[in-house]
Design brief:
The chain is 26% helix and 22% strand. The chain is α/β, with parallel strands linked by helices.
C-alpha cells in the first residue's frame, strides 16, 4: 500500500488568543478524493494554508511525503482589468513551454481563449484557467479551494465533471473545499465536516446519517443527487454549531 501524501496529527492553530483549528487530524492518501465542508469561520482556509505549508502550526505534527507535488487552485484571482496579460502569458509565468500550456488548455476546454486577455474571460473560463495552471506540472495532489466560485449552475456542473475527469487522468489525490455542500460527488471517498474542529468525517453515505452533519446541512436525502443539496440548517452567532455527542457508530462530534 502506498504511503500517505500528507498526514496531520492533532494540529491546532491560534490567531491571537482564539483557536482557529483545534486538534485536527487528517490523512490524505494517493488517488483519494476528500471534500472539505463547513460554515464561514470554520477554519477551512487555515487548514488549506497548513496543508500547502504556507503557515506554521502551533500544536501537533504534519508529515508530507518527499514525493508530494501539489497543484493549487485558489478561490478567485483578482487581476487589474487594465493589465495587458493574455491567458497564454498567464500560464507561461509558471510553465515556459508553450506546447505544454496549449495541451493543458485543451484538457480544460479553453484552448480557443489562449490568446485572449485574462480580463475578457467569463467566470467559468477564468476558473478553468486557474485549474489549468494547477495541473501544469502533473501534481499528485490537487487542492481546489471553492472551484466553482462565481460560476452559474450549468457551469458548476460542467466544472465538477471536468474535475472528476482530471482526477482519473492524473490519478491524483484531490482535496476540494466548499463553503457549503453544493455537491457531493459520487466518487468522493471521504467528506470532512469542519467547524474549527472535525465535527464528523467518513464516506459520504456514513456522513449523511451523522447527527453532526445533519446539524450542519440538514437531513436532505439518503441518496446522493449529483450537484444538488437542501440547505435548511441554521448557525448560531459567529458560526457556532451545536453538536451532538459521540454516536453509537463512534463518529466524532466534538
Amino acid at each position: 500500500m502506498s504511503s500517505p501524501l500528507i498526514t496531520l496529527n492533532k494540529v491546532s492553530k491560534y490567531h491571537n488568543t482564539k483557536e482557529t483549528l483545534s486538534s485536527v487530524s487528517l490523512t490524505i492518501n494517493p488517488g483519494q478524493i476528500i471534500t472539505l465542508i463547513g460554515p464561514n469561520g470554520a477554519g477551512k482556509t487555515t487548514l488549506v494554508k497548513i496543508i500547502l505549508n504556507l503557515i506554521d502550526i502551533d500544536e501537533g505534527v504534519v508529515f508530507r511525503s518527499p514525493d508530494l507535488r501539489i497543484g493549487y487552485m485558489p478561490q478567485k484571482l483578482h487581476i487589474d482589468q487594465t493589465l495587458p496579460i493574455t491567458l497564454e502569458r498567464f500560464l507561461r509565468l509558471t510553465e515556459k513551454n508553450t506546447k505544454i500550456c496549449s495541451e493543458v488548455l485543451e484538457e480544460v476546454g479553453i484552448i480557443n481563449q489562449m490568446k485572449c486577455p485574462l480580463s475578457s474571460l467569463s467566470g467559468g473560463e477564468m476558473q478553468r484557467a486557474l485549474l489549468a495552471r494547477a495541473i501544469l506540472h502533473k501534481p499528485n495532489f490537487l487542492v481546489l479551494d471553492e472551484p466553482v466560485q462565481g460560476v452559474d449552475v450549468a457551469g458548476q456542473e460542467a466544472l465538477y465533471k471536468l474535475i472528476e475527469e482530471l482526477h482519473r487522468k492524473l490519478n491524483c489525490a484531490v482535496l476540494m473545499v466548499s463553503h457549503d455542500l453544493h455537491v457531493v460527488m459520487s466518487s468522493t471517498n471521504e467528506v470532512l465536516c469542519l467547524n474549527n474542529h472535525v465535527c464528523c468525517h467518513g464516506r459520504p453515505d456514513q456522513v449523511s446519517k451523522n447527527p453532526a452533519f445533519i446539524e450542519l446541512f440538514g437531513e436532505s436525502t439518503n441518496t446522493y443527487t449529483t450537484y444538488t443539496h437542501h440547505h435548511d440548517h441554521k448557525h448560531e452567532l459567529h458560526g457556532e454549531v451545536k453538536l451532538s455527542k459521540l454516536d453509537e457508530n463512534g463518529f466524532s462530534h466534538d
